[in-house]
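lol ok so funny story. i was supposed to be doing the assay writeup but got distracted and ended up predicting the structure for this chain instead. priorities right. anyway since i did it might as well share w the group, maybe its usefull for someone
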Amino acid sequence: MKKISLIIPIYNTQEYLPKCLQSAVDQDYKNMEIICVDDGSTDESGHILDGFAQRYENIIAVHQENGGESKARNKGLSMASGDYIGFMDCDDWIEPDMYSRLSGMLETYDVDMVASSWIKEFADQSIKVKNIGEVKAGILQQDEILEYVYHRDEYQGFAYMWDKLYKRKLLYDKDGKFMRFDEELQMGGDILYLAKILMNVERAVYIDDAFYHYRQRPESGSHAQNVEVRAGALIAYDHIIELFQENHIDEDIIKLVKRFQVYHSTNIAEIAYQKQDRTGLRICHSYMKKYEKEYIETNLSYQDRIERFYRILKYEI
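and the output, tada:
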């Protein structure tokens, strides 16, 4: 049986962490190491982790000074010994058969990566995400995977790092070095890392069953109201565009990446405008203008998005 390394960065989620860790140790796939990196939590998260590590021998507890999610993931990667690698966030939880099912798909189809659907968890309801477009059955080639990951309106099931399982070989760069998350990015490190992995994927497969529960909470990092922190995602997309161009990825895929960058720019611009952050607003406007053509072309079916784009572009401080 192949070994799976599951990497979980942890920071100040004492309310949600027990459910997260319990779902990880309850996996029916038994050859797993669960590497949990406490990134300097100031609440009870570190103590909760230590308690689980004492009770379950496959949990590896690591504590470090706060350095950000990417640094925590890098620490976990440096310790990972698995044949397969998975990622999980510390406020989410997973179904008990997630990794037995995903690893089974990896081996049955002999592919590099398997992706699956997931569930949005709100305070009052659970919603399984659905792909509007039809996903090809069987083995997917790299160009198809890129289409599914970045054409988000049509294929939400492919969106994130944590709804997938990867063969270890995908995490090495062209020089044979283990790829690391960019620790300079306060946000967007996972976006960039997934893109780097996808450059190594030749064959993949998708399963439309949902195993991962993604908790929607306004205080999470992805909903931060800090303009400087959120701007990390814009830099991440700069790197992805450059990476895809270097790898001669189809221009239609790169357009979709530019569309994402502009979308994030509009969201950050609204925060900057509310906070009267002139510099932040200027940066967002520059990205919006840079890829205005691509954003409009890829949103012709969404007139409301186009109207919102031009409304935000008129913001002044």
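The longest helix spans residues 251-274. The beta strands are 4-10, 32-39, 59-64, 84-87, 93-94, 113-121, 126-128, 140-141, 164-167, 203-215.
back to the writeup now i swear
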